[in-house]
Design goal:
Layout (H helix, E strand, L loop, with lengths): L3 E2 L2 E2 H6 L30 H4 L6 E6 L3 E3 L2 E9 L8 E7 L4 E2 L3 E4 L5 E8 L6 E8 L4 E9 L5 E3 L3 E8 L5 E9 L5 E9 L3 E2 L7 E3 L4 E8 L5 E11 L6 E9 L4 E6 L3 E3 L2 E9 L8 E7 L4 E2 L3 E4 L5 E8 L6 E8 L4 E9 L5 E3 L3 E8 L5 E9 L5 E9 L3 E4 L5 E3 L4 E8 L5 E11 L6 E9 L4 E6 L8 E9 L8 E7 L4 E2 L3 E4 L5 E8 L10 E4 L4 E4 L1
Parallel strand pairs: 4-11, 13-20, 22-29, 31-38
Antiparallel strand pairs: 1-2, 3-5, 5-9, 6-8, 6-10, 7-9, 10-11, 12-14, 14-18, 15-17, 15-19, 16-18, 19-20, 21-23, 23-27, 24-26, 24-28, 25-27, 28-29, 30-32, 32-36, 33-35, 33-37, 34-36, 37-38, 39-40, 40-44, 41-43, 41-45, 42-44, 45-46
Length: about 550
């Protein structure tokens, strides 16, 4: 029989409105409903019916591990709902970095309740244990607190400003900062030291979230010549402490490291290519290098420009001819340093050498007959020699084959012809004086020759005596050979018993000739005189 009380049956009053007999098994025993986070009108547990709170069946939090400061949601589950009033759950944590409420209340007829665990950031990884207890039993939950690290990584630990930066000129380079930790990085300040270094545009404090990067610009504006060093100290909450970027740069103009010319010596007027080298390139704009020479015979430009980014430049030295050897010093300088190079200017000499210093015309030259001999001239100096005139002295001498002025380059030679045309019998002498710009002054070639016919120097017959009719061979000798053509020698005898040819001919280039004397028989001994003569002289034989 079912008794109905106030709209609910007695069955429902005992086991909850909405319950039915299906809630019982075939044996008649009650089946507990499943616990949920919402209120339930299911049958109370045996603990509830006894007045004891239902036990805690499970205790969970949303996160098993946390990084940094977070709020974690945790849930306490009862094995069944409480039918008689709410259930108070005591909460505790063994780690001061995890704060939980002292208690949390599961509402009446509910099976669960949530609360918030406030977790602080920790410097080292650790484990916190949260305990939930209802007096009868308890459950725990472990939360792993991961180390919260703020780490600053300098991707640019060293900044080197390349090349020389002109004074009061600003150049910049980037600095990269990275937050590589697990929690935000806060850079509170950046302290910069060193002459000429600045960090424009940066504002502090600066916060970088994990993985975030920032780019700053460090500036170098030198005010003095030479190297400069400094550093930037980044003060932050980084686990690595204060991070430092070192700074270095060169201010002003780069020093001249070397000066080299193509030729260390020069002869006469010439040009020479020189190269000036800097110790480093200019970081901004060209570098003007001052040039000078201590010798007016070596002229240079006032300056030469080394382009920006380059370390060398060429220029031309104009060298004049000098009459005495000397050394020119070329100097290249910037405001920082200087280098010099010596060029030896060799004496520019014009020298005339007479390969034929003496001309002797061999043999006798017939009167009014011309013979010639070569005269060789050579320019042996370092500069061209110019022969302005050739003055010839002496009877019968001349110079042919040349027109003056005559210029001979170094090593060049020429051959002229000295001529002899005698007009009188005998010896002739003279000279040729070559007037030039030779360092040896006027050069002279001496001349000599014999004019006319050569004298008879000797007359010899084979036999000095003869008896009866006979012939005798005689030889006439000249003092020199004829230079041109044969020489006719006149012959005579003072005795009719000794007859001779009217003349005998000495061949050209020879100095003697033979002839025959025909002797007749004489009744009395006597002396015949044979005479050989030219226009110059005569000789006799008895």
């Amino acid at each position: 029989m079912v008794l109905v009380l106030g709209g609910c049956s007695l069955f429902a009053t005992l086991f909850g409105c909405g319950s039915s007999l299906e809630a019982f098994g075939s044996s008649g025993a009650a089946v507990s409903p499943t616990a949920t986070a919402s209120s339930s009108t299911g049958s109370p547990s045996s603990d509830s019916s006894n007045g004891a709170p239902p036990p805690i069946s499970e205790f969970l939090c949303a996160s098993g591990s946390v990084l940094g400061s977070v709020h974690d949601t945790c849930t306490v589950y009862l094995s069944s709902a409480s039918a008689s009033g709410p259930v108070s759950i005591a909460l505790s944590s063994n780690n001061s970095s995890v704060a939980v409420p002292a208690t949390v209340t599961v509402p009446e007829n509910a099976t669960s309740v949530q609360f918030t665990a406030n977790i602080a950031s920790v410097g080292t990884t650790q484990t916190a244990v949260i305990t939930a207890s209802d007096g009868a039993d308890s459950q725990t939950y472990q939360v792993k607190l991961l180390q919260a690290v703020s780490t600053l990584v300098l991707d640019t630990p060293k900044v080197v400003f390349q090349g020389y930066v002109p004074l009061n000129t600003a150049v910049t380079q980037p600095i990269y900062l990275v937050s590589s930790g697990s929690v935000p990085l806060v850079i509170s300040a950046a302290t910069i030291t060193g002459s000429g270094f600045q960090l424009p545009g940066a504002t502090f404090p600066m916060t970088l979230n994990p993985g975030q990067e920032a780019t700053l610009q460090v500036q170098f504006s030198p005010t003095v010549q030479g190297p400069a060093t400094g550093q930037i100290s980044f003060v932050s909450n980084s686990s690595t402490g204060t991070q430092v970027t070192t700074l270095s740069g060169l201010g002003g103009v780069p020093p001249v490291s070397q000066l080299v010319c193509k030729s260390a010596s020069a002869l006469g007027a010439a040009t020479n290519t020189c190269t000036v080298y800097l110790s480093a390139a200019s970081a901004s704009g060209p570098v003007s290098v001052n040039l000078s020479s201590n010798d007016p015979s070596a002229t240079v430009p006032a300056t030469v420009a080394v382009p920006a980014g380059a370390t060398s430049a060429q220029f031309t030295v104009n060298l004049a001819s000098v009459t005495t050897s000397q050394t020119a010093v070329i100097t290249a300088s910037t405001g920082a340093s200087s280098q010099s190079y010596q060029v030896k200017l060799l004496q520019a000499i014009s020298t005339l050498v007479l390969d034929t210093q003496k001309v002797a015309f061999s043999g006798y030259v017939p009167l009014n007959t011309t013979v010639s001999q070569p005269v060789s001239l050579v320019s042996s100096g370092s500069m061209p020699v110019t022969i302005t005139a050739a003055n010839v002295t002496g009877p019968g001498f001349q110079l042919s084959g040349a027109t003056f002025p005559l210029t001979l380059n170094p090593g060049q030679g020429t051959t002229l012809q000295a001529q002899f045309t005698p007009t009188v019998q005998g010896t002739a002498t003279g000279q040729i004086s070559f007037v030039s710009n030779s360092s040896t002054g006027t050069q002279v070639t001496s001349l000599s020759g014999l004019g006319g016919v050569p004298p008879v120097s000797q007359l010899v017959c084979k036999s000095a005596s003869a008896q009866g009719a006979a012939t005798d061979t005689c030889t006439v000798y000249l003092s020199a050979a004829a230079a041109s053509g044969p020489v006719s020698v006149a012959l005579s005898s003072n005795d009719a018993s000794a007859t001779v040819p009217a003349t005998v001919t000495v061949p050209a280039g020879a100095t003697s000739a033979q002839f025959t004397v025909t002797l007749a028989s004489v009744a009395t001994s006597q002396t015949a005189v044979i005479t050989a003569s030219t226009g110059a002289s005569s000789q006799s034989f008895r």
